[in-house]
Amino acid sequence: MRSRTLAAAALAGMAAAALYGQAQAKAPAAAPSKAGGVQTQATLAEMTPAKALFALTDGNARFVAGQREPRDYKAQVHATASGQYPFAAIVSCMDSRAPVEIVFDRGIGDVFSIRNAGNVIDQDVLGSLEYAAQVVGVKLILVMGHTHCGAVKGAIDGVQLGNLTQLLEKIRPAVGGKVPPAGSKDDAFVAKVGRDNVFLASQEIYKKSPIIKALVDSRKVAIANAMYDIDTGKVSIEKLPESNKN
Ligand SMILES: [Zn+2]
Asked: What predicted TM-score, i.e. pTM, was given to this entire model?
């Protein structure tokens, strides 16, 4: 019961905190930053939610600085052929300007990447995350939206197009009831809806997956939110809830 209370408090804290500030996570450099190395059973065993978050923020800092680690993809293909031990699962938008492994400076076998328009959550995404967390053992689930998101703009404007219509409906709760006159041309509103959409998605994961909820409550996995800045390449990640800093 105590852990449940802590998790609830953590989620509440996520809501109350200044969202999407620069990551505050401090953790010793983890094995995955070893140049050209791949994730192994041993590196995953040593990983924690805080270290996983640090590995991502550290990688994004390298990306922004133009100092990406040297990486031999061919060697990594060979080294990961017998199994995968990724440390994080990232739910993000399909936008071609936000390629996950590149913006976090990660290689083959490092992270699960689940992408769709508007980083929406459905049963298939939840199932994928449950596989990542329960079966493979990732330590971090990161939901990442981005600035200037076309899907968010479409939801704001009430776009209707084939199967896209039902996808955009999933973003509508983040739009809320009141849309400014400029609609999707209001950059500040688009940014706000994008952030709210990420926050609601992370809450949905926790609420709709008893498997992930149990892992979060027992501090084995953390859920964090992020926004990718299309203009700068920078990812802003909310710091981990206190109860998940282990
Ligand atoms: Zn997008």
From this structure: 0.85
